[in-house]
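BUG: 3D viewer hangs when loading the predicted structure for this chain

Environment: internal workstation, default settings.
Expected: structure renders.
Actual: progress bar stalls at 90%.

Input used:
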Amino acid sequence: MCALGAQTLGLVRSQCAYSCKVPRRASTHVDSAKAVGERLRAARTEAGLSQRQLAFPGCTAAYISRVEAGARIPSLQLLRELGKRLGVSADYLATGQPTDHPGADLLTAELAARTGDLDKARSLYEDAIKSDASPELVAEAEAGLGQLFFREGRHEVAMSHLEHALANETLKLRDAYSVADSLGRIYAQLARYEEATALFQGYLDRAKEFGDSAEAIRFSVLVANTLIDRGDFPRAETTLASVLDDARKSRDPLAQASLYWSQSRLHGSQGRPDLAADYARMALAVLDVTEHTVYAAKAFALLAQLENDRGNAEAAIALIDTGLPTIARTGNRYEEALFLLERARALVALGEAEEAGALALGTIPTFQESSVTNSARGYAVAASVFKSIGDTARALELYELAAESFPTADQHLVDVYTAIAELLESEGRQDEALEMLKRALSARAGVRA
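Structure tokens produced before the viewer hung:
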């Protein structure tokens, strides 16, 4: 061995001996390797990503696994990149301190929304969207703002923000599930059934891929609800049957209640109000043992509709009086309008025509921007008011608007065609009345298909 080689080998050996005697200095940019690993694993799980999905050039899935096990300490540069992909700050991953987390304002916005300070929440979300924040934070802000408008019943403006959030493709999976739920509901209420079905089915497939049974139940029910809305009752029934056992075994009361709710809607849409009421009360019974007061309040609107369908106006009024105060406190104009529409239907039956007409007509502007079917029902209720006071011309005009507005075969569409036929017959217009009766029969056949 040459002298230089021997000298080099000796130097290496001496350095090794030194390193074995002197403890390695702890990293100055993390609190502990174990804590970093725990925070990284928690953030990755929250984002709905596997180790392989989080990996990128220079940071393999195997390396991420070792970091999460506390066996490696990533550099600050790697922590920054990991944080960017997970929507958290490098400081949070390193020390658990979120003080410089760029999404702190979004957390404040979410808390403001939950505590009822909607103006503050809206302002913070809008500021985040306008800023030069990362695409991940902008998507989160779009989602938050969209959900805020959705809860207020402002479906058109909510739809725009929710679409932008999903198109960004950087949302955490759990947030994406929630956004897809709300956006698909809006599509369905605006009679954009194909878009709603495609969106729900896509996330149902994703939930199955990740083995998430709770989300699979949720999106199966949403698919079924959309099929009910579009009048495809056989497929809706098959879809609900496919998750019946899983939902019943689920410990999530919302999963069980949503299944019963859908069963109620299915039977109600097919002209079976007694069976529909049984399922609606089962949903309410499940919700009564939870703290989901708003969901329970919504169940009262469905029950009121079913009692009106069965001709029990006074029972409908009692249900409305129970659920409406809770819904009114949420500020959701759409949900509140559903209660007011059912109150109008009940008042018509009780002979309170003037108040019923004002309520029914007052709901139509809200429904025109949020729900095609309920807008049609609003016209129908208003028409029944004018029918009851003998204003045939006005009643026919409103019934015709209702008939034109229903997007699919619906039990209430059958009632509309029947009412038009009765009015036409009272005016001696027999041929036109017969045509309306044929349409009523056709619509009834569609409802029972």
